[in-house]
Every structure is written in structure tokens, then in C-alpha cells.
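**Folding the chain**
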Amino acid sequence: LDVVGPDHQDLAEAREARARIVDRDPGAPRAEIGERESEPVPVLDRVVLEDRAASRLVAELDVRADAFWTRGHFPGMPIMPGVLQVEALAQAMGVYVARTEGFGGRLGLFAGIDDTRFRRIVTPGDTLTLEIVMEKLGSRMGRAKATASVGGDVACECTISFIIPPEGALPQQRGPSGTAGTTGTTGEGAA
């Protein structure tokens, strides 16, 4: 994640996650029932504005032609799935929350996605501008108005709510060997 402006840290993890996008053969067999096929979701490219007085953050996502969804949604006519637009908005909210004192290492989970509307298609080559305006931010939950746009045209708008589960409420994260590890927490996960 490139952050534009003074006093912001470069979040190299976001770049590394984007670099792990798998170029999957569309003819390859799908995962067996019960197995999870995990392909990375979009990761924000940069934060362009953070205005704490207005409880606002603006970030951008460069919609790439090599994104995992381009071959299948839809073949020959790639359109960014709406669920990934909402995920990108949630990530922008997660960045805002993670930069708020007292929230840095906590995991936020979706509590609600309300009043969602899709108004424009998003395709590879577009830059998706993600604007979050926090309406409420408490120690255990938050809510934001979220708008994704391309060139000033609204593509998606919604209200996103999240909760922060109490300590010990989440199952322990499993490592590659299948053994339990520590609970994974990030400040910008599922928001």
C-alpha cells in the first residue's frame, strides 16, 4: 500500500498479498467439497487522503487485468464483482480504524452491509476511488458510509458496519501444518 502524504507508513504487506495472486488455469478442476480454495481479494494500492476532523479516508485500488476474477466474471468481458467492490470499501474502513488509537492490532468483522447500490460497472484499467466517512466508532463496533467511484462516477455505495469480537471469542487460527496457532489479528482485515 503506497500512502500519499506526510506521516504515513508504507504497508508492504498489502503489496506482498497482491503479488501472491494466483494465475489459475480456468480448465483446472475446482476444489473438492469441503476444501477451501483461497484466492486473494483486492488489496488497496494507496491512501490519498485522511481527514480525521471529518472522519474521512479516501483510498484507491488499481483494477488490474490479471486479477483472479477477470477470466470468469465474465469470460471475454471482465467486470469487477460487486462483492469485491464492497470488500475494497471494507478494507479502506479497516485502514481508517487501524490508524485510530487503541484499534491497531484488533480484528474487525462484518456486522452488516446495508443500503447497497451498484450504479456503474468497474473493469480492468479503472482506478476505483474508495471513500469512507465514519458515522460511529466505538470500542467494539463501527459504521461508515462508503462510496466507490471511477472518474467521479459512483460505482457502488453502501453502509458498512463491523464488530470487534471480545478476546478469546474467535477460534484459533490454523497454521499450514493444521496445528492451532495464535488468533490472527490485523487492523485492516475483514472490517
